[in-house]
Amino acid sequence: MFRKKYNYLKKDRYWKEKNKDYLKELQSFLDKADNIEDESLKKKIIGQMLKCDDILTKLAEEEFIKFYKSGLKDSKKE
Questions:
Q1: Distance of CA 18 to the CA centre of its chain
Q2: Which of 14, 36, 67, 70 could form a disulfide with 42 if both were Cys (CB 3.0 to 4.6 A apart)?
Q3: Structural domain harbouring 36
C-alpha cells in the first residue's frame, strides 16, 4: 500500500498546480515580472523564483511521505 501511495506522489508532481490560490499568486507574480523592462533581470528573477518553488515543492513532498510513513507505522502498532 505504501509503495502505491509513494509512487503516486512521485508521478503526480503537479499537485500544487491544482490549487487555485497557488495559480492565482503565480499568475500575479508573472504579471508583475512582465513589467520588468530589463529582459536579463526579468529572466533571472523568474528563474530564481522557480528554483525556490521547486525546492519548496520537494520539501513538501518529503514531508507528505514522512507523515504517511509515520501514520502507517502508528497504524501497525494498533
A1: 11
A2: 36
A3: 16-77
